[in-house]
């Protein structure tokens, strides 16, 4: 026979409700993809061109939340891109992570595939336009399938180039399937000093649900000064440092990207 008094049952129910509310507040709809700190330009790979890239990010200082501190976390992605035409490319990525709290080996974190297109010829419109669709298969979170749509807007001003990528992401299989579309962005202001050196300033943001943006302090917002170094026309190095602007952002991230082009 159940001897629990009504008062005791009320206290148990209240504690359970508080736990559920705490979990709902603490858990984000779905996490920002730190593997993809990349701003896409208008130009796609040329027909028959193969590009091999390595994108690496090392968390020097994690978020302000003690339970979510990712300091010393290293993320790496290897990307292969092939130009199907002069205006359409296909790319495949493999992501891996090294978490010192889980051992010393790299752990496979997922794979991604995208189609990216550029529209019209460079300079034919007031702004140069492109778009891509990406299919993501993450391995280390509660969401197993995601789709991402990204617009690409580019404008040249003398030696300056501005690239803006509005991003829309949706979980299609996993715990956050019902969360709807998420709004993010990536953008870069590039100074084309010469063919070898191009300083740049990049911004990345995760605003939250498209129909219900998060408050500023719960958004991910990153600012990243960087430099592209091209010792040859077919080899490029991007080095940068990202600073988190909100408590929900990882505070400092060292970045290194390498790209080889084969024709």
CATH topology: Porin
What is the alpha-carbon Rg in Å? 21 Å
CATH superfamily: monomeric porin ompg
Q: Average pLDDT across residues?
A: 88
Distance between the termini: 79 Å
Helical segment count: 1
Quickly give the CATH architecture.
Answer: Beta Barrel
In total, how many beta strands?
A: 13
User: In order across it, which strands form the biggest sheet?
Assistant: 1-2-3-4-5-6-7-8-9-11-12-13
Write down the domain tally: 1
In sequence order, what are the helices and strands, one letter per element? HEEEEEEEEEEEEE
Query: Portion of residues in helices?
Result: under 10%
Shape: globular
Largest sheet: 12 strands, antiparallel, barrel
* Helix vs. strand class: mainly beta
Poorly predicted runs of 5 or more residues: 12-29
CATH class: Mainly Beta
Strand content: over 45%
Features of the shown structure:
263 residues, mainly beta, Porin, 1 helix, 13 strands
